[in-house]
Every structure is written in C-alpha cells, then in structure tokens.
Amino acid sequence: MAETRTNLTDLDPVWTQIRAEAEDAVQEEPLLGGLIHSSILHHETIEAALAYRTAVKLASAEMSEQLIREIADAAYRADPEISLAARADMVAVRERDPACHRFFQPLMFFKGYQALQAYRIGHWLWSEGRRDLAYFFQMRISEMFGVDIHPAARIGKGIMIDHAHSIVIGETAVVGDNVSMLHSVTLGGTGKEEEDRHPKIGNGVLIGAGAKVLGNIRVGDCSRVAAGSVVLQEVPCKSTVAGVPAKVVGEAGCSQPSISMDQLLGK
Predict the structure, then answer these.
(1) What is the pLDDT of residue 192?
(2) CATH number of the domain within which 65 lies
(3) What is the pLDDT of residue 7?
(4) 39, 128, 175, 186 — which has fewest CB within 10 A?
(5) Buried b (16+ CB within 10 A) or exposed e, 214-231
(6) Does 1 map to a domain?
(7) DSSP state of 63
(8) Alpha carbon separation from 45 to 6, 151, 218 (Å, rounded)
(9) Quick one: pLDDT at residue 191?
(10) Does some domain include residue 195?
(11) Residue ranges of the chain with per-residue pLDDT less than 70
(12) CB atoms within 10 A of CB 101
C-alpha cells in the first residue's frame, strides 16, 4: 500500500512542485523550517497537507485540531472531487494572482485559497446531511478568514479569490468554473424569501472588488462585473456591467476575463 501511494504522489505534478518549492523555501528561510515541514514536507499527499492546514486554522477551544483533521481526512477519502478542485484552485491562483510566485504559497499563506478549501469540506458535510457540523465550519471559516460562504452554496473548480476579505456567498448561490473574484464581493439575496434567492455566476466570470450581485439572477459566462457595482438584473454572456445599479457598458473585452484579470473599462 505504501508503495502505491508513493507512485501516485510521483504522478501528481502539483504536489511534486509544492514539495520542491517547500524544500527551497526552507533553505532560503530556515526560521520557517518547522512550519513548512509540519504543513507540507511531513505529508505524503496534498490531501493530507490540506487536511492538516485546515485543522490548524479552524481549531479552537470548541473543537480540537485532531477532530477537524479527522473530518477533513474523511471528506477527502469520500469525495475525490474535493481534491481535484483544490488542485484546480491552486493552479488558478498561481496563474492569475501576480503576487503568487510559487504553488506552495496559497496553501501556506493565502486566506482566500485556505477559506475555499475549508468551505469545500463544509459543503461535503452539508451534502452528507451533517448540517450542524457544516454550520460550525462556516462559523469558523468566517471567524478565521473573514470569508462567509454558506455550506449549501455550490462552487466550481479553478476559483481564485484575491485578498478575500469580506467575501459573502449565500445559501442558494451557484458559482461556475474558472471564476475570479476580489475582496468584498457579495453574492446575496434581496429579501427574506426562503427559496432560490441568490445569484448564479457562469463560467469564466470576473467580479471586481466590492461588487454586489443580489437576487436569483444569472451572470452569463465570461462576463465582467466592475468594481463597486450593484447588479440587480441578468448579465448577458461576454459583457461588462458597471454602476449602481449596474448596466451593460460594453463587451467583456477578451474571451476569458477571469483569467486575464483585466478590469479596465473601455477594453
């Protein structure tokens, strides 16, 4: 069994790169050696490292690190999609965030990435019917990272949440694949209705800092929402919206705005 796990690790290019970068970082900054060893180099798989990192971050007097790690380990064993999403999210951060220079940085230092991976475990708990424990995860993620994602929300792969402070994503929100959003984004409702009440964000969408998308509306694939906008109506695919309330001001400017991260209007 140990040999099989080693072979699988050798075939995991993301994890292999993370370990190589971690070893370099220890050489460059020995004072971080203990932290990097416990967080990355001590583990055989990326799943084990993610479970450990999540447990360290979310543990408190109310629930021990050991218990949270056992929950995270169970989630990764039960649902391989969580691991695939973690890798896709890491690649997204590395490719799109100019402040990210190594693959191991999101795992170690970036709260947007860490919060998203913890949410994915909470979402698994919700899907398994363990609602109260999922709410506990939501609470601790919000307290620890300043990111409040309801565990019932559905979020795709390849997500980049830059800076991540004050992100709010509601219960019935859906976020597609390869979406990028900046700090203080809200995907919220417009009242107290209990049915489907939150936005549906398409694939490849870029949502600028401070933007609010409210209600059960769709933001079409490969669109841009300008910083500070308040979106109350449907957004067509491959368009740019801006303003309060937001209006269509032009095309998206490129085929993949969430990857180019180009937020300048008029392009």
Answers:
(1) 73
(2) 1.10.3130.10
(3) 44
(4) 128
(5) bbebbbbbbbbbbbebbb
(6) no
(7) B
(8) 9, 25, 37
(9) 75
(10) yes
(11) 1-11, 263-267
(12) 10
Looking at the structure, do residues 20 and 127 belong to the same domain, yes or no? yes
> Residue 49: how many CA atoms within 13 Å on its side-chain side?
27
Say how many CA atoms lie within 13 Å of 230 toward its Cβ: 4
**Is the previous residue joined to 80 through a cis bond, with omega within 30 degrees of 0?**
no
**Judgement on whether residues 140 and 157 belong to the same structural domain of the protein:** no
What per-residue confidence (pLDDT) applies to 11?
A: 65
Residue the block writes with tokens 């993301």:
14
Q: Which helix (H) or strand (E) holds 224?
A: strand 224-225
> Mind listing the pLDDT tens digit for each residue in 146-187?
999 999 999 999 999 999 999 999 999 999 999 999 999 999
What is the domain count for the chain? 2
Q: Is residue 4 one of the residues assigned to a domain?
A: no
How large is the greatest C-alpha to C-alpha distance in the chain, in angstroms? Answer: 58
Same domain for 55 and 142: yes
Alpha-helical runs (H) found in 11-100: 13-28, 33-36, 46-58, 65-78, 80-96
